Amino acid sequence: MGGYSTNLAQKAPPTRMSEPALSFIANTTPEAQRALKALRRQYGHVPPAEADMLVVLGGDGLMLQALHRSLKRRTPIYGMNLGTVGFLMNQYRPNGLLARLKRARRIGLAPLRMIVRTTRGQTREAIAINEVSLFRSSRQTARIAISVDRRERLPELYCDGVMVATPAGSTAYNLSAHGPIIPLGTGLLALTPISAFRPRRWRGALLPREARVEFTVLDPRKRPVSAAGDSVEIPNVARVTVTEASDIELTLLFDPEHDLEERILKEQFQP
Amino acid sequence: MGGYSTNLAQKAPPTRMSEPALSFIANTTPEAQRALKALRRQYGHVPPAEADMLVVLGGDGLMLQALHRSLKRRTPIYGMNLGTVGFLMNQYRPNGLLARLKRARRIGLAPLRMIVRTTRGQTREAIAINEVSLFRSSRQTARIAISVDRRERLPELYCDGVMVATPAGSTAYNLSAHGPIIPLGTGLLALTPISAFRPRRWRGALLPREARVEFTVLDPRKRPVSAAGDSVEIPNVARVTVTEASDIELTLLFDPEHDLEERILKEQFQP
Amino acid sequence: MGGYSTNLAQKAPPTRMSEPALSFIANTTPEAQRALKALRRQYGHVPPAEADMLVVLGGDGLMLQALHRSLKRRTPIYGMNLGTVGFLMNQYRPNGLLARLKRARRIGLAPLRMIVRTTRGQTREAIAINEVSLFRSSRQTARIAISVDRRERLPELYCDGVMVATPAGSTAYNLSAHGPIIPLGTGLLALTPISAFRPRRWRGALLPREARVEFTVLDPRKRPVSAAGDSVEIPNVARVTVTEASDIELTLLFDPEHDLEERILKEQFQP
Amino acid sequence: MGGYSTNLAQKAPPTRMSEPALSFIANTTPEAQRALKALRRQYGHVPPAEADMLVVLGGDGLMLQALHRSLKRRTPIYGMNLGTVGFLMNQYRPNGLLARLKRARRIGLAPLRMIVRTTRGQTREAIAINEVSLFRSSRQTARIAISVDRRERLPELYCDGVMVATPAGSTAYNLSAHGPIIPLGTGLLALTPISAFRPRRWRGALLPREARVEFTVLDPRKRPVSAAGDSVEIPNVARVTVTEASDIELTLLFDPEHDLEERILKEQFQP
Fold first, then answer.
1. How confident is the model at residue C146 (pLDDT cuts 50, 70, 90)?
2. Rounded to an integer, what distance in angstroms lies between the CA atom of residue B253 and that of residue B105?
3. Is C245 within 8 Å of chain B by CB?
4. Which residues of D are known to be catalytic?
5. Do C231 and B159 touch (CB under 8 A)?
6. Mind telling me the catalytic residues of C?
7. Which among D126, D79, D106 has a CA at the least distance from the CA of D6?
C-alpha cells in the first residue's frame, strides 16, 4: 500500500513477538564488533533470511545498506547507534533489547524506484530509500530537463546536479542542498537542485508522492552525468525516471519516545 | 472532511447548473466597474444570499474579502482577474461565462481558525484563508514562544514576526518571508518566521494539517505584538492558537486548464 | 576621512591618557545601576561634555543611544556588557578599567546619513549607525523604487521593507532579513530587502561605500511607508536618500583580544 | 599593487595605441571560426607573444583559458561574445574594432594562487581567476577544516566541497552555491560552502582580500578530495592554501558602456 503508516502495529499483531528470532549486523569498528559479539551471545542469532527482526549496530550508512539488502524480505529493522550519524537509529544499550523491540513503534517507509537509461541504450533499475540524485561527472556543468507527470516543467537546468528525496531522506543530502525538511506521512517528495547555475535562484519544488519525475540529460557527451540511488552510482545516464515504489514498504522500528516522526519534526526546530 | 478535494464535481452534481443564479462583485476601478455593469446586464444578477455562484471581478485582495464574507454560506466563487495580483483568479473574458462556470474545476480550501487572547484578557476568533501572522507593533523585536500540539518547540524566537500559512497562502506572504510553496492537497501547513533574529538561521517548519500551533508572546508590554488573519488585525495579543478550520470548506472555481493546483505547482518552477 | 580605521591609535596619541576623565551611563536595570554607582565611586565621574571617554554599562541598545548622543562631540566610547545583546560591548569587569582603556583598540565607524522627504513635502535628516530601513506602516505591502548613484536599478520592489546596513550593523537587523555579514574595513554597504514579494527571490546587493542609494515610495497614500535611522522613526516618507556620512567618525574602544573586527569575522563562522 | 584598478588607462598610456598589433583566438564553432578568418583578414594578425592586445572570440570558458595562457605576458585581452556564457565578453561586432579597443576601459583582475599539498606529499601550485574549489571525489562527504590567517575558524565542515571566489568569479560557481555577488574593487573574497551538511546552515564568509585561507582535508583516504583552480583539477589533496596573487594583474578590456564593474552591479539586481 506504499508510503507511511504507523498503525501497522495495531493491525498486524506480530507472531512470536515474545521470542523473535534476531539477526545482528555491525559496523567494522572495534566498538561495534564487541557489541555484536556480546549481543549475539545474549540474545541468540539466526541468519538474516530466518530472522523475524534485523538489529543493526552502526550508523545511518549501515542502516541504509541493511534496508537495501532486505528489500525483498522486508524484515523489520531496529538500529542502535554506534556510528557517526544516527538519525535512523535508536540509542545503543545492550540490555533490555527484547522489551524495547516489543514496544517499538513501526514506521513504514516507501522508497523510490529509479529507472535509468544510459547513453549506451541500456536500462537499469535501482531502489533508493533516501534520494535519487543526478550529478555531473566531469568539470562540465550538467544540463538537465525536468518533467513532472510527462509535462516539461524546466526545459534546462544548469547545475552540479538535482535530486528527488523522500521524507526520510529530506534531512540528509537534500538538507545540505538547501532543500526543505518534509515530515513523515505527508505524502510529499522534495525535488531539489544542487548548485543551480541557471535558473540561478531556483529552489526546487515539493511534489505529491504520486508524481513521476523524469530527468533528461542534455549534451550527455560534452556534459556527462551519473545517477545514484542512495550510494549506488550508475555512470553516463541519458534519462532517469523516478517514482515512489509503492509496492515496497520497509519497516523501521523505533523506541516510541524518539521515533522517526518526532525526530524529523524536531529537526525542523533545530536552531 | 475539510481541506482540499477535487472530486467534489463528481460527487455533488450541481443543481440548476444549466442556469445558475449569479451574484457579481467588483473592484472600484473604472475597468472593473464597467465589466460589472456589462456582465450584470448579460447574465442577470441576484443578491449574494440568493446566488448559486459568486463572480468576483478584481484581484486576490477582493477574492479574499469575498471568501471571508461567504464563510457562512460557502457559495462557490469564480474570480476573473481585473486586479494587480490574480493568483486565485481566472482570466477575464466577458463572453462564454456560463459555459466556463459549467466546466469549472472545484477546488476546496480549508481555512485556518485563530483564537486570540489579548493582553487585556479578551478572547477573539477569526478565520484566515491565506495565513495567520503575528508581527511586532513597535520598533522592539518580538519575542515569541512556539508550541506544536501542546509541546514547546521553540522557547524563544526573536523576530519581526511569524506565520502559519495554508497551501493556498503559501505563494503569498509566506513566500516573501522565504517560506516554501506547498502544493494543494498535501495536508501541510507552513510555519515560517519573518526576519528571525534568533535563532538566526531558523527557516521554519512544515507541519501536518492537524497540527495545533500556539504562539505565546513574551514581554508583551515591552514588545507589543499584533496578530492578523489575512488582513484583519488584532492588536496587543498575548497568545494565539492556530488550527485548521476543518469544519469549513470554501469552494473556488477554476477553468480546468489553469486550476489552482496547476498554478501552485507551476509557481514552484518559476525561475 | 570616514569609514573605518584601526591605526588611529598610532597616529593620534591620546592626551592625558594616563588619567582620562570618564563619564558613565547605565541601563535602568538594578544590576547596571549598582555597577554605575560602584564605578563612579572608584573612578570618578564628569559630565559627558567634559569627558575624555564615555563608559556605557548595558547592551547594544544603550550603546547605540550613546553613539547617537555623542555624534557632535565624538568622544570615544567603551561599553561593558550588562544587557541582552552585547555585540558592541566588552566584557563587564569592575576592576582594572583604566588599564583596559589604555590598551583598548580604537575602531572607527562611519555612520549613514539619511535625508527624508515626507509626503507633506518636509525634509528631515538623521544619522544611523547600524542601518537605515524603510518599512510598510499599514497592512499594505510597500512598493518602492531603488536607484543607486542616480541610476534606477529596481523600478518596483513589493516588500515589507528594505534597508541599507553598515558593516557594524550587518550582524543586526540586516542578518535577520537574510542579508550578508560584512567585515569591517571593506568599504561596503548591504542593500537588503525585507520580505520581498516581487521580485520574489531578490536577495539584495553589496554596494561600494561611496554609493548613494535613493528609495522612492510608490503609492505613498495607499501604501504608507515609514523610515528609520536605527530606532528613530519618521512616518509617511516619499523619498529617502542614504549616503555614508564620511564627515563623521565615531570611535569605539575594544579590548584587543575581542575587538569588533574579530567579532564580525567570528560571527560569520557561527554554525 | 594588485587587485583591481580602473585608472590604469590614465596612468599608463598605451604605446602604439593607434595601431596595436592584434592576436586573435577563437572557439571551434563554425561561427567563431568564420569570424576569426574575417577579422584576421581585416585587422592583421600576429602571434600572441608579439601582440599588444589579444582578441578572444567565444565565451567565458575560452576567455578563462586565454587569461590562464597569458599569465606571464599579461597582454590586455578583449573578448567578443560568440559563446554560451559571455559575462566577461563584449558584444560581437566585426566592424569598428580598433575604435572600440581605443576607448575600452581597462579592468585589472587579481587572481588567486593555490598551493596544494597532495596526500603523497607533493606540492603543486596553480592560479585561478574565478575560484579555487575543493570537491569530494567519491560518494563520501568531504570533511574539511578551515583556517583563516593561520587561525582555525571551522574545525570540521562536512560538505560536497568549499571554494574561495574572486569578485570576478563571484557571479559564476560561487553564485550557484548560494554565495554572494561581490562588486569589483571592494577587496573581498567569498568563502562559500558547497552543499554543507554540517554545520548545516553555514552560509560561508566574506573575507578581506589579504586573507590566507587554508583548507585541511580530514580522513583523506576514506574521504578523498580534489582541488581545482578554475577548471584545472588536482586529485587527492591533503591541504590547500589560497591567497590573492597580488603579484599578478590581468587586464581585461571592456566597452565603457558595459564594463565588468557595471555588469556585476547589475547582476545583483537581476530579479
1. very high
2. 6
3. no
4. 60
5. no
6. 60
7. D106
pTM attached to this predicted model: 0.89
pLDDT: which is higher, A173 or D185? A173
Q: Block means of pLDDT (10 residues each) for chain A, length 271 residues? A: 38 54 96 97 94 96 93 93 90 95 94 98 96 95 97 96 96 94 89 94 93 97 96 95 94 91 89 73
**Min CA distance, A72 vs chain B (Å)?**
29
Burial of residue B19 (CB within 10 Å: 0-12, 13-18, 19+) is exposed
Q: pLDDT tens digit string along D70-94?
A: 888 889 999 999 988 888 999 999 9
Contact B244, B216 (CB under 8 A): no
**Chains in contact with chain B (at least 3 beta-carbon pairs closer than 8 A):** A, C, D
Helices (H), D44-86: 60-69
Q: Is B216 helix (H, G, I), strand (E, B) or coil?
A: strand
Span of A27-36, C172-181, C183-192, D45-54 with lowest mean pLDDT: C183-192
Q: Residue B87, Cα to own-chain centre: how many angstroms?
A: 11
Q: How far apart are CA D176 and CA A200, in angstroms?
A: 6
Look at B203 and D203 and tell me if their CB atoms are within 8 Å: no
- The span from the CA of A270 to the CA of B35, in Å, is 52
C-alpha B62/C-alpha B29 separation (Å) is 12
Structural contact between residues B241 and B212, judged by C-beta atoms closer than 8 angstroms? yes
The partner residue sitting opposite D195, judged by closest CB among A176, A231, A270, is A176
B208: nearest CB among A183, A203, A206 = A183
Q: Which three cell numbers stand for residue B114?
A: 485563530
Contact across the interface for D196 and A176, Cβ inside 8 Å:
yes
User: pLDDT: is C20 or C17 the higher one?
Assistant: C20
User: A: neighbours with 3+ CB pairs under 8 Å?
Assistant: B, C, D
Judging contacts by C-beta atoms under 8 Å, the chain C residues touching residue B159 are 176
State the DSSP H helix or E strand holding residue B55, giving kind and residue range, or none if neither: strand B53-58
Place of cell 512598493: C143
Is residue B93 within 8 A of residue B103, CB to CB? The reply is no
Hey, are the CB atoms on D201 and C154 less than 8 Å from each other? no
The pLDDT score that the predictor gives to residue A18 is 60
* Closest alpha carbon to A20 in A84, A62, A67, A78: A78
The single residue listed with the C-alpha cell 550588562 is C82
Query: What are the grid coordinates assigned to B139, written together?
Result: 520598533
Among D1-10, D19-28, D39-48, D118-127, the minimum mean pLDDT is found in D1-10
| Gap between the Cα atoms of B99 and D53, Å rounded | 68
The conformation of residue B175, written as its DSSP 8-state character, comes to H
B206:A268 CB<8 A: yes
| Averaged pLDDT for residues B201-211 | 93
Interface test with A, best of C176, C201, C202, C203 (most A CBs within 10 A): C201
Residue D18's pLDDT band (cuts 50, 70, 90):
low
H/E element holding D33? helix D30-43
Q: Where are the extended beta strands (E) located within D2-111?
A: 22-26, 53-58, 77-81, 105-109
C6: pLDDT strictly greater than 80: no
Q: Is A60 a catalytic residue?
A: yes
pLDDT tops 50 at residue D43: yes
User: Residue D203: its chain B contacts at CB < 8 A?
Assistant: 201
Backbone phi, psi, residue A116, to 5°: -110, 135
Note whether A208 contacts B185, CB cutoff 8 Å: yes
